[in-house]
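Q: Got a minute? One more chain.
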Amino acid sequence: MRRTLAFLAALLVSNAMLADDTLWTRLWSPGHVARNASVQCRGTDALVAGSVFDTATKSSDIFVAKYSAAGSKIWNKTLNFDASDDGGTVAVGPDNCPYVGLSSGRTPTARIVKLNTTGDTVWTRSKASTYSGPLVADNANNVYGLFSTGTLPNDSLLLIGYNATGTLTAYRTLKLGRAHQPSGLCLVGTHLIAASNIADSLVTRAALVKFTTSGETVWTRVLPESLATSALAIAGEAGGDFYLLGYRPAGPVMARLNPGGDTVWTVTISTSDPLSPSLATDTAGNIFLATGGQACRLYKYDSQGRFLATLRAIVGYPIQTVSVSIGTDDMPVATGPVVISPQNVPVLTVKFANPAGGVAKPAVPYQVPNIRVQPNPVTRESATVRILGSKSSRAQRASVTVFDVSGRPVLHHPSSWNPALGIAIDLRNVNAGVYLVKVEANGFTQTQKLVVQ
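A: Always. Here it is, folded:
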């Protein structure tokens, strides 16, 4: 198993490193199937947390890992309170001690766990009949969580806060609708902005709430459908404004709002990739949103909503919901589960370069070439590899290598690649099973799973 993971990691790293937007790529299996992952940067380090599911015992735990600026894993820990631990949101204060949010049990119980700088538990605070949600830590090492409390479908929104020693500093419940789904929490100056989706009957709406750090409500806004019908994420801006990522009938939208909750501008996000519920800003005021799919992409916008660039890491396997955060070096770090197989879902963490400036251009998503093996599954005869999205129309040198899941090459096929015809590979001497097809052509490398029957 370790050899297989090491081989798959090497393939993913080689693929990602061909995209010049990455500084490093790390693939880590925290055990079993990763269901979600979130990241929070403090300084130049990155804390990654999430939940993993054991398909044999049908139980789940929380994992936490710390990476250095260079991508070295400093430590990793497992948190276990119940057979159904879920969540794994993370926040970090200036003392570099991470806070982890999770839910346990079917009732459930929400927990905030403070760890020290080496990953050992300092304290745990619990709230019964509550689902955990996003966390944020301020510069005084206070932590705040946005949870939903009560019994569905008639719950309430809960803002809860603790200081560095675990003393309760904020507690406020709000009833904005019949059911609440917390989707974002950020600091804007000395205030907190919370985002939640609320439901009444069959209607779902997005709502924003501004709190003081002691939990007092400053204002609430139920957003009009023209702005957003659902909220995915929010992020604060140094000047007091904040950004909202969500959906409206016209499609995905990002909006900038002022401290009073009024809209400054909106921009429709032009992408066919699945949006992830995550936003981050750098010190220059640029905004980054993440998408998953066959590649992990960050879309970069300036503070006026103008599209600047796409940062990309070619993954080669479907990557699920992506979380993004930016440290003091202004280099975004993104993480998310990668589905190699239903039983093999490790966590991919990527650090991107962040080119200064950038020229505003139309929000047209970057299209990287992708390989397609057809037919797939194949019945031990022949298959054709096609490279989609290439701008070349002439024949070029290419090679196709087929590996088994242990990393052993079973077929190597140097070829002249014709974009119109693809590359034919003979599989008559290949046994039935699951394989990885690696294609190298014209400086482009990508890997895809192939099933031989």
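A: The two ends are 23 Å apart (CA to CA).
Q: Perfect, thanks.
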